[in-house]
C-alpha cells in the first residue's frame, strides 16, 4: 500500500505541486488580505518575466477550481503516459505558451492571469501528440481530450466582454502543437509485435547476405 502511494506521488508529482502552489497563493492572498497581485499578470509586450508569474494568480475560487481539475487530469495523463519527457513538457509550457502570448496577446492595458493557457497547452499537446506519433492508443487519448471537452472550442473564440482571454488559450494550444512536433521522437514508443520483430530480423539477415555476396 505504501509503495503504491509513493508510486502515485512520484508519477503525479509535478501536477500535484502546481495545484498546491496555485492554492497556496490564493490562501496567502486571503490570509494577508492582499488584493493587488494582478500586477503579476501578463501584458502583451511588457515585462516578459511575468510569463513565469501569471499562471499562479487567479481572480476567485471559481477561476481556481476550473483550472485545478483539468490540470490534475491532463497532468495525470502526461505524467503517466509521457513519463520520461513529462518534465520537458511542463517546463516548456511556461516558457513557450507564455512567450507566445506575450507576443500575440491582448493589445490593451488589462492584466491576464490564471493557468488556463497552461491547461490549453497540455490539452493541445495530448491532442496533437497522439496523431503525430501514429500510435492508436495515444490517438484514442487525443479523441478522449475532445470527448471530455477540455479544449472547449468556445474557449478559442473571441466573445466580447466575457473577461476571458481567448488569445492566451490560443497561445497555449499552439504551443502544445509545437512541442508535440518537437518531441515526437521522444517518450513512448509504439509497441512492436513479434511478427514485426521477425520481419525486421529477416530483412537484416537478407541485407547481410547481400553485402557478403557483393
Give a quick summary of the entry:
The chain is an all-alpha fold and 214 residues long. It contains eight helices and no strands.
Q: Quickly count the helices.
A: 8
Question: Which geometry do the CA atoms define?
Answer: globular
Mean pLDDT across all residues, rounded? 79
Q: What is the architecture at the second tier of CATH?
A: Up-down Bundle
Please, could you describe this protein's structure?
With 214 residues, this protein is mostly helical. Helices cover 63% and strands 0% of the residues. The chain has a single domain, classed as Up-down Bundle (Rhomboid-like fold), CATH 1.20.1540. The chain contains 8 helices and no strands. The longest helix has 21 residues. It is globular. It starts with a helix and ends with a helix. The model has no long low-confidence stretch (mean pLDDT 79).
Any chance you could write out the topology, listing elements then pairs?
Blueprint: H1 2-11, H2 13-31, H3 61-81, H4 86-104, H5 116-132, H6 136-147, H7 166-182, H8 194-213
Helix pairs in contact: 2-3, 3-5, 4-5, 4-7, 5-6, 5-7
Record keyword descriptors for this entry.
214 residues, mainly alpha, Rhomboid-like fold, 8 helices, 63% helix
Amino acid at each position: 500500500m505504501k509503495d503504491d502511494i509513493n508510486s502515485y506521488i512520484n508519477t503525479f508529482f509535478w501536477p500535484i505541486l502546481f495545484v498546491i502552489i496555485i492554492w497556496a497563493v490564493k490562501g496567502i492572498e486571503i490570509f494577508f488580505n492582499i488584493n493587488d497581485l494582478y500586477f503579476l499578470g501578463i501584458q502583451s509586450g511588457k515585462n516578459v518575466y511575468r510569463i513565469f508569474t501569471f499562471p499562479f494568480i487567479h481572480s476567485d475560487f471559481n477561476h481556481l477550481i476550473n483550472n485545478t481539475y483539468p490540470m490534475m487530469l491532463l497532468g495525470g495523463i502526461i505524467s503517466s503516459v509521457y513519463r520520461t519527457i513529462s518534465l520537458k513538457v511542463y517546463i516548456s509550457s511556461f516558457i513557450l505558451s507564455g512567450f507566445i502570448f506575450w507576443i500575440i496577446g491582448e493589445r490593451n492595458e488589462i492584466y491576464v492571469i490564471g493557468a488556463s493557457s497552461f491547461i490549453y497547452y497540455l490539452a493541445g499537446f495530448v491532442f496533437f501528440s497522439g496523431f503525430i506519433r501514429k500510435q492508436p492508443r495515444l490517438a484514442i487519448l487525443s479523441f478522449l481530450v475532445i470527448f471530455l471537452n477540455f479544449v472547449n472550442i468556445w474557449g478559442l473564440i473571441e466573445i466580447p466582454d466575457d473577461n476571458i482571454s481567448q488569445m492566451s488559450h490560443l497561445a497555449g494550444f499552439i504551443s502544445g502543437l509545437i512541442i508535440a512536433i518537437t518531441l515526437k521522437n521522444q517518450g513512448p514508443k509504439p509497441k512492436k509485435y513479434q511478427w514485426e520483430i521477425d520481419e525486421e530480423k529477416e530483412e537484416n539477415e537478407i541485407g547481410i547476405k547481400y553485402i557478403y555476396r557483393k
